[in-house]
Amino acid sequence: MAGAKNILVINGPNLNLLGARQAEFYGTDTLEAINARLEKRAKDAGAQLASFQSNAEAELIERIQQARRDGVDYIIINPAAYTHTSVAIRDALAAVGIPFVEVHLSNIFSREPFRRESYFSDLAVGVLSGLGARGYELALDFALGSRGKE
Ligand code: DQA
């Protein structure tokens, strides 16, 4: 199957603090550094990649709705704390119908019990959790090489 050409990376609340936030869970890379690596990797593969971060649920929903109008064909999303709470963001992803990979820097299954529930995983093409910033890169490599469920 053809690879994704127009990829959107979405990061939820508090991920703007990466690099200065609980390094034991989230590592030392800043979000800017992660996004720059992803942009280069996508460009080298002949695809375009945009990134968006917000601390606000409504803005994340608006951006997902916008993605369909923009012709985005793959989403990589770390919904952060909204993973465990947001039916509204889940519904937005279901509504636009764009395949997505769910990424978590930390292993959400090895932390507090409330982090084990995700409103996204059953809709996701796949989930990467606990691989740090590499998770985004692995998700991108997957997106560049495929489309949707295989
Ligand atoms: C996170 C895990 C979430 O439980 C947490 O609320 C985050 C980040 C991760 O990347 O490991 O903010 O999504």
Per-chain topology:
Blueprint: E1 6-11, H1 23-26, H2 31-44, E2 48-53, H3 57-70, E3 74-78, H4 87-96, E4 100-104, E5 126-129, H5 134-145
The chain binds 1,3,4-trihydroxy-5-OXO-cyclohexanecarboxylic acid.
1,3,4-trihydroxy-5-OXO-cyclohexanecarboxylic acid binds at residues 14, 78, 80-81, 83, 104-106, 108, 115.
Characterization of the model:
Helices cover 36% and strands 17% of the residues. The chain is an alpha/beta fold. A 5-stranded parallel β-sheet has the order 2-1-3-4-5, sandwiched between helices. The longest helix is centred in the first third of the chain and has 14 residues. The radius of gyration is 14 Å and the shape is globular. 33% of the residues are buried. The structure holds 1,3,4-trihydroxy-5-OXO-cyclohexanecarboxylic acid. 1,3,4-trihydroxy-5-OXO-cyclohexanecarboxylic acid binds next to loops.
Quickly describe the structure.
The protein has 150 residues and is of the alpha/beta class.
How much is the average pLDDT? 95
Radius of gyration: 14 Å
Poorly predicted parts: none
Q: Please write the string of helix (H) and strand (E) elements.
A: EHHEHEHEEH
Please summarize the sheet with the most strands: 5 strands, parallel
Helical amount among residues, as a percent range? 25-40%
Total beta-strand segments: 5
